[in-house]
Amino acid sequence: MNMARLNLVLILLLLACALSTVSANHRARKLFTELEAVQKRMRDLDVEWGQLQLEQSTLAAHVRIERVAREKLGMKPPVPGQIISVDAVPGK
Q1: In a domain, 47, yes or no
Q2: Which SS3 state, helix, strand or coil, does residue 25 take?
Q3: What span, in angstroms and rounded, lies between the C-alpha atoms of 15 and 3?
Q4: Is residue 15 assigned to a domain?
Q5: I want to staple 75 with a disulfide (CB 3.0 to 4.6 A). Which of 31, 45, 69, 81 is the partner?
Q6: 11-64 pLDDT tens trace
Q7: What is the pLDDT of residue 92?
Q8: Number of domains comprising the chain
Q9: Distance between CA 3 and CA 11 in Å, rounded?
Q10: Contact between 69 and 75 (Cβ < 8 Å)
């Protein structure tokens, strides 16, 4: 009778360990899948960041700014007689 109880306890313990192992493996696979998805998102964001930096440098180029100022705003460089130089007063 004692041996039967011991066998029953050992079988229950074995089942609990087996279920725990299966559960841990499932959780690990699920977390690994989430990690891969987050890493892909990070790579996509890095590519987008690079594209945005390139676009910003293109939009901020002096040649482009001058062209937009001339064409869309009708601006033109001042003639030498329109330029006034102002010297800063030291100490103020």
Answers
A1: yes
A2: helix
A3: 18
A4: yes
A5: 69
A6: 999 999 999 999 999 999 999 999 999 999 999 999 999 999 999 998 888 888
A7: 63
A8: 1
A9: 12
A10: yes
The verdict on residue 30 lying in a domain is yes
11's tokens: 């079988």
- Does the residue 82 lie in any domain? no
What does residue 12 show for φ and ψ, rounded to 5 degrees? -65, -40
Write down the residue that tokens 């130089």 correspond to. Answer: 85
Predicted structure pTM score: 0.57
Both tokens of 87, joined, read 């010297």
Question: Cβ contacts of residue 58 below 8 Å, gap of 6+?
Answer: 64
Q: Judge whether residue 88 has pLDDT over 90.
A: no
Q: Is the dihedral of CA 59, 61, 67, 70 positive or negative?
A: positive
Distance CA 15, CA 6 (A): 14
Tokens 């279920």 belong to residue: 19
